[in-house]
Amino acid sequence: MVEDIPLPLLRQELALFPAPPAEDGTPGWTLHDPPANKFYLLGWPAFEILSRWDRGSVQSVVAAVNQETTLTITEQDVCGMIAFLTQNFLLQTSSTSENKRIVSAHTASRPGWFLWLLHNYLFIRIPVVQPEQFLNKTAPYVRFLYSRSFLVAVAAVALVALYLVSHRWDVFLHSFSAYRSLEGILIVGCAIPIAKIIHELGHAFTAHRYGCRIPSMGFALVVLTPMLYTDTNEAWKLTSRSQRLAIGIAGIAAELLLALVALWAWLLMPEGPLRGAAFILATTTWIMTIALNASPFMRFDGYFILSDFLRLPNLHQRSFAFGRWWMREWLFGLGTPPPEPASVRLKLFLILFAFFVWVYRLVVFFGIAVMVYHYFFKALGIFLFAVEIGWFIVHPMYKEIATWWQLRSTLRFNLSAFRSVLVVAALILFFAVPRKGTLSAPAALSAAREQQVSAPFAAMVIGESVGDMKKVQAGELLLQMSSPDMDQQSRQVKASTEISRWQAAQQTFDEKLLSQGNVLNRRLEAGTTELSGLQDVMGRLALRAPFDGVIVARNDELAAGAWLARKEPLYVIADTSRNRVDAYVSERELERIKVGAAARFIPDALEFGVFACQVTEVDRINIPLIDEPFLASTYGGSIASRTDAQGVTVPDAPIFRVRMDGCSPAQVPLLKLKGVAHIEADKSATVVELIRHAYAVVIREIGF
User: Fold this and answer.
1) What are 324-339's pLDDT values in tens digits?
2) Are strands 225-230 and 217-222 parallel, antiparallel or unpaired?
3) At 359, is the pLDDT very low, low, confident or very high (cuts 50, 70, 90)?
4) Predicted confidence (pLDDT) at residue 580 exceeds the cutoff of 80
5) Taking the CB of residue 522, how many other CB atoms lie within 10 A of it?
6) With contact defined as beta carbons under 8 Å apart, do 310 and 244 qualify?
């Protein structure tokens, strides 16, 4: 006969509470550890074992459960319960060795200050108040908020408010732009704490209403940004799923109620700071709250609401277990059973949910890493960025890969493994094997030569000898202008010069003129030079074609007697016998393009066809501004750009011009063509490009 094993003693302060039934309908219970304020969800067999723990031995418990219930358990089930209780320190200690084990576990769970700060600097919870006494006193005054009649009244008041706002919709929308000043920032800074306090009180009053103790309320530092919190862990005591859902939704509902009150305040109050605060409370705060708290991918309100709604406690941990199990099965075909029994639909949901959470957290953690990098000074920012990426992204991946390595002895070559090998090989081919590719770049096709003719200075139009689309030859007269000011100045200089010439000729016959010596000759030379310069400048009043071409644009204001301002555009002349294409590439792509490479230009207007070109010039200096505005993102183009203080369109990142001349066919449209240039490039591996780009980023960012 197998020796009966005595049962260890349970801690006296442990408590059992009914829990919602499991998905299969079997009853459930919650085991509460008050000192640690932890809750453990127990299934039916675990409860039946614990409820007969006083039988004193393993075999006695097994016999009692099998005789008194419809369950059939074994000694292994009871031993498993002992292991669970031991692992979570739920048993009484009766020896020095057990006490040392508890102390060692407690010490191991409390890392040094450096590791604690390293792991928790992004989220530090600081309790501020113990609200039980306050909730006991004030709960009667808010009881009416939970009545059905109040909810009906709120719905009616909300409909009336929305109706009134719809009649003042233009004023309401204008308010969004009216609070972007410093005053608006101060209003937002005052309104948001009010909304968050109401949010947390909604959780606290609702949990208190259903008998839950609220041990603390305070604030948490999330990336050193304060956020309020309410400890509602005792909600796990509740057996009603609707009550737990109510606690989870209460914060959002409280903010929506505050938003309704603020909306009525905005409708009734005169313009001023208080009305601005009411507007912020009625719009921005609750929208931000829903956007943040409704996400089930982080442990905020949305997660607990979804978990209770689906009756899936520990949703994240369970889904992660299924996600890892599916990934290992897909990669290696291990044939291991799933982490827990589940229907096909539940398995699919948990697997997809796990991957959604992983992708979401990857984006969030990377965003937080970038934020902390810019949040602190350079040296600390680099360190915290590395910690964030290493601990929250690289470390979980390393742990999973380490698990794969530990499973290597169980791996067998099967269909799943063969498929994984093919996928890895395909990835290696894609990223590591150099390929002679084609680069695509935004580009514009225009005439090979194009020049704008402008008025050299303020003048009046006398006559014009050309018009739109007229072919002109180099030196042909385009426009004759006149400048009365320069005519007057020319007459004055000419008269002064004639006087100086007469005086120089008569100097030998006049003692007074003779006494001036060489002054008269120098004055004559200066006047002659000035007159010659004026004549040259006045010669520019006759505008002539700089080269053979076609007038593709003309100032519509040109007419006899019209006055022109200095540098006013008059004509655009283009040499339509040849064309050119200017493409714009990034620094990473520049090294792969060589002079002589073949290229094709495909315009957005497909009716012009495809142009075959050849690279003739590759700039090695980035362009400071974008010459073709229609290629800039600010005007709907594909080059990321911005407009500076002077109104000039500048690229956000360095770009370089690649010129292609003599494209075939040689036709030149009247207007520049926007399109895409496909340029043959040298062989390059994707992984090399990624490493080169990452290296460039690192070199750029580590500069102090």
Assistant:
1) 999 999 988 888 888 8
2) antiparallel
3) very high
4) yes
5) 13
6) no
Q: Tens digits of per-residue pLDDT, 90-121?
A: 888 766 666 666 666 555 555 555 555 555 55
**What 3-state class would DSSP assign to 105?**
helix
pLDDT at 468 over 90: no
State which H helix or E strand residue 496 sits in: helix 484-506
Q: How many CB atoms lie within 10 A of CB 530?
A: 16
How many Å apart are CA 636 and CA 630, to the nearest integer?
7
Instruction: Decide: helix, strand or coil at residue 366.
Output: helix
CB crowding 254-270: b at 16 or more within 10 Å, else e? bbbbbbbbbbbbbbeee
Q: Where are the alpha helices (DSSP H) in 283-392?
A: 284-293, 301-310, 315-332, 344-375, 378-389
| In the block, residue with structure tokens 């493994």 | 417
Report yes or no: 209 and 139 within 8 Å, Cβ to Cβ.
Answer: yes
93/86 Cα distance (integer angstroms): 10
Strand partners, 282: none
Both tokens of 38, joined, read 């932890």
Q: Is the pTM of this model over 0.85?
A: no
What is the residue whose two structure tokens read 């315009």?
603
DSSP letter for each residue of 601-615: EEESSGGG--EEEEE
Does 323 have pLDDT greater than 90? Answer: yes
Other CB atoms within 10 Å distance of the CB of residue 544: 15
Residue pLDDT, tens place only, 115-153: 555 555 566 777 888 888 999 999 999 999 999 999 999
Residues near 165 by beta carbon (within 8 Å), at least 6 away in sequence:
172, 263, 267
Cis peptide, bond prior to residue 140, ω within 30 of zero: no
**What is the rounded distance in angstroms from the CA atom of residue 108 to the CA atom of residue 104?**
6
8 A C-beta contact, residue 73 and residue 63? no
Q: Please, are residues 298 and 364 in contact by the beta-carbon 8 Å criterion?
A: yes
In the prediction, which pLDDT does 348 show? 94
Length of the chain: 704
Cα angle, residue 481 at apex, residues 524 and 568 outer, rounded to 5°: 110
Inter-axis angle of helices 415-432 and 686-701, nearest 10: 60
Distance between CA atoms of 78 and 63, rounded to whole angstroms? 11
As a whole number of Å, the CA-based R_g of the chain is 41
Give which of 190, 176, 196 is closest to 255, Cα–Cα. 196
Tokens of 260: 């309704």
DSSP 21-43: --TTS--EEEEEETTTTEEEEE-
Q: What are phi and psi of 471, to 5 degrees?
A: -75, 135
Name, in order, each residue with C-beta under 8 angstroms of 303's C-beta and a sequence gap of 6 or more: 295, 296, 297, 315, 316
Residue type, position 228, single letter: L
Q: Which residues pair with 127 in a beta bridge?
A: 218
Helix, strand or coil for residue 228? strand
CB 234 within 8 A of CB 207: yes
Q: Which two tokens stand for residue 554?
A: 């003309």
Contact indicator for 548, 472 with CB cutoff of 8 Å: yes
**End-to-end alpha carbon distance in the chain:** 77
Helix%, strand%, coil% for the chain, nearest 5: 55, 20, 25
Q: How does the average pLDDT of the chain come out, rounded? A: 80
Q: Which is higher by pLDDT, 145 or 429?
A: 145
